[in-house]
Amino acid sequence: MRLRARQVWSTTFLMAVFIGVWAGTRSYGQASRLASTPPMGWNDWYQYGCTVSDAIVRANVDVLVSSGMRDAGYKYVNIDDCWQGKRDAQGFIHPNSRFPDMKALADYIHSKGLKFGLYSSPGPKTCAGYEGSYQYERRDAETYAKWGVDFLKYDWCSASRVYAPDQMQAAYRKMHEALESTGRPILFSLCQYGLEGVWRWGASVGGNMWRTTPDIGGNYDRVSLFGFMQNGLETYTGPGHWNDPDILQIGLGRLNHDEELTQMSLWCLLAAPLLAGNNLTKMSNDTLKILTNPEVIAVDQDPEGIEGHRVWQEGPLEVWVKPLSDRSMVVGLFNRSESPLPITVRFKAIRMKDNVRVRDLWARKDLGDFHGHYTAKVPRHGVVLLKLE
Ligand code: GLA
Description:
It is a single chain. The protein has helices at 2-28, 45-48, 54-66, 69-72, 102-111, 137-147, 159-162, 168-181, 220-228, 257-269, 285-292, 294-300; strands at residues 40-43, 76-78, 84-87, 93-95, 115-120, 151-155, 187-191, 209-211, 242-244, 274-276, 309-314, 317-323, 329-335, 341-346, 355-360, 365-371, 373-378, 383-388. The protein is built from 12 helices and 18 strands. The protein has 2 domains: 27-300, TIM Barrel (Alpha-Beta Barrel); 309-388, Immunoglobulin-like (Sandwich), CATH 2.60.40.1180. The structure holds alpha-D-galactopyranose. Alpha-D-galactopyranose is lined by residues 45, 80-81, 126-128, 155, 191, 215.
């Protein structure tokens, strides 16, 4: 009798484990195999808006390769809004005249060892007024798979006209299921500006990344406002699913050198997707260096995928940390004030031993061994990014 009870118990336990594992795999599906580290690539929106074309995309693709950006990790070539034309009698979407042959463009991108991203909306129209996917989700997913799409940014836009806020999750899940049913792995990028606490449910509707903010386009005030406001969201990020504070503004002409270092450092500490947004064909050497510093990118791409957070703040001065899988700690000393100021990191406060080896990741230079603390003078709107071991 006792034996039988034990058998029943262990069978129930095994079944529970099996159902748990099955449900877990099912809710993420294909998605869990994508974006094991934060996605990296290029997006045309901030540079080209609705003038984007096949020729523009190809020109930027060529520089992604020749500049070394692809090899530094920038793999996705994402066409944002404004590529859509009309639907045919069967409801299948076609590109507009700026994109004469989407399949050929995808083939070109793939032939360069890159991946191809597109954009749509769960609403009837995109934010720029082009065709959205509302009621055509399956057909659009099929079309994307046929063209060879690897990434879909799905932007809420006019969906608020046809869905109530509590239907948002279902609207995103619907497209996720449509993408899954094609059998092609397509990274799913949710864009709804951080509404409805998306970080809490983005992964459960199949999202590999989700925007946590409104559109970032602008100067340092906007970039720093949205970047530093990510603190607290770190528990929602991990391999396969990432908080996305929007496209890099580096090389777009609205940030100075120190401000660009701030965005790149902060995005890497945040384990955020790194989507360059600039005109690559006119990129300065300084921009390229900022986008491709391998030691800084390695912070973003650390396989453990832990999102950093703020450990200290005094008015406009902030210290952020991100633990890496090699047991080292990356520390960002940020100065958001209007003049250069010293900032100190105390090793005990970030749970490190008293003796620490310090490396400057932007200078790519070992600074030596330090006892108890390290202090650096940080430029106005700037950062010092350190690796501590
Ligand atoms: C919204 C998104 C942007 C961009 C535009 C395109 O504003 O948040 O990232 O995709 O739409 O219209």
